[in-house]
Amino acid sequence: MMTTHPRFGPMRGKSAVGPWLAEISLDSWLDAFLADNAPERGYAYLMRQAADTGLYDVVRRWGQTGNPAPTDAATVLLLLPSDMLAEIGRRTGLRRDEVVARLVEELPVAVRQHTVGKRFNRFGHAGCAGEDPMRR
């Protein structure tokens, strides 16, 4: 039986458009970070970091597991840019170790949600975005 993962922080103020720095809650930060296309942001950056640090299979498994298990603090520190952790701390008022402790649980879930969103198009099927599988 799958349980819903508790999200950290309120969903207030999540902007539809704008850089990841505009986000307020940790889940919002991660959603915006993974969706970003900047050179040192986004899902592609995370996967490059994972490959460079020998964690590629771990991060890939998060995206393929229905309810990914929390990771450890060392993994979070290796994968996420230190400026992002510092900015989250400044904006939320949390200490760096508190931010990392929350990201230990939140990062695998965010990766799972991001990969599921990329894998399925608006028709609920894998394939090209916007492709209607019934029109083949």
Quick recap of the structure?
The chain has about 140 residues and is mainly alpha-helical. The protein is built from six helices and no strands. It starts with about 25 loop residues before the first helix and ends in a 17-residue tail after the last helix.
The number of distinct helices, counting runs of at least 4 residues, comes to: 6
What is the approximate shape?
A: globular
Poorly predicted spans: 1-23, 125-133
What would you call the structural class? mainly alpha
Q: Percent of residues in helical segments?
A: 40-55%
Please outline the major beta sheet: none
| Spatial gap, N to C terminus | 36 Å
What amount of the residues lies in strands? under 5%
E-strand count: 0
Model description:
The chain is an all-alpha fold. It has a domain at 26-119. It has six helices and no strands. The longest helix has 24 residues, at 96-119. The model is unreliable at 1-23 and 125-133 (pLDDT under 50).
